[in-house]
Amino acid sequence: MLDRFPKTNIVYPHRMRDYFIAGFTFFCVAVSLVIDGSSSLEMQNLLGVIAWIFLIVLLHGENNEVRMQVAIAVAFATAGEHFASVYMGGYTYRFENVPLYVPPGHGMVYLTAVALARSGFFLTHARKIAIFVIVLCGIWSLWGISGIPEQGDQVGAILFLVFLIYLFKGRSPLVYLGAFFITTWLEIIGTAAGTWYWAKIEPVFGWSQGNPPSGVSAWYCLVDAVAIGLAPIFLDKMKRISLWVKSVKQ
What we know:
With 250 residues, the protein is an all-alpha fold.
């Protein structure tokens, strides 16, 4: 199964832009979630404005395909947030809303996963990174259903299996690996800071759910998969519309 992550002696070139995007997003996630853990709604809204500015600036150096992927990721993830949090109650933010920084935050998270996936470090050490992620997340998932923690995590174990399917069957496994790191980081910090909390019992099937679930990165893999899959279709449609408009003007 690890054939998707072949061993290689090639040392891929490092682009500082990729590491800057990742490092900057990891830093912003930590700072903003800690601030929001005890701040006012007005401060939360200000964080949203800042996040949109940061996302727009980061996208400046990307091509149209990545920009479209980010736009789709933002739209899809935002709709998912309103359904899973506000409507279903699977997790709840402090003010029982979807904070304004969440949509651009999803864009930065997606862009970080892409940047990590194309970075020289990930390309050079893909197999080692994959093994590390599988073992770490696997141990976390087993711990969640072992009966040791007071709050069980059946949902996390199931999501871990879904994550493995994405990893070995999805079209962009390195993006999913990148998503694991940034989403695990934000989930641990966000729940620790009290910015949001996951319901102990999942509202649809009544399964136990960790805070956060161990395999939570699977949800973000779905966002990544939708963005990667739909971007070429939307770009093609936009190109056709542009050509049609030009032909009408002529």
